[in-house]
User: Which sequence fits this backbone?
């Protein structure tokens, strides 16, 4: 059974940085994609960044140049480095995974989800 667990959220001032981690237990598939999503109350879950086991990476326009997604296969961990944070980045951040190839930013393309970690950016 695949389980995902996020950590690294917190409160930071605008312009600051945070690094989110997502630990992965269980086997997804030889071909997989993993992503970071965020959600604020009353809004739909938004795709932030995603990567695929074949090396493809995709970012939402709102975070390009500021966020970096990466993975450490030896540690079974997915990361999201967030720099130059803005108050509009405030949200609950989730990691997600699915078997297959592609770099979708739509939440309905993912089967496995973590519980989320809160990121708050103050101005």
Assistant:
């Amino acid at each position: 059974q695949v389980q995902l667990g996020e950590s690294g959220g917190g409160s930071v001032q605008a312009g600051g940085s945070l690094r989110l981690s997502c630990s992965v237990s269980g086997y997804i598939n030889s071909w997989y994609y993993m992503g970071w999503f965020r959600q604020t109350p009353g809004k739909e879950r938004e795709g932030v960044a995603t990567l695929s086991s074949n090396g493809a990476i995709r970012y939402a326009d709102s975070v390009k140049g500021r966020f970096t997604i990466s993975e450490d296969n030896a540690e079974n961990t997915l990361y999201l480095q967030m720099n130059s944070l803005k108050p509009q980045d405030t949200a609950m951040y989730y990691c997600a995974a699915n078997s297959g190839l592609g770099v979708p930013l739509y939440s309905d393309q993912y089967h496995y989800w973590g519980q989320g970690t809160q990121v708050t950016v103050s101005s």
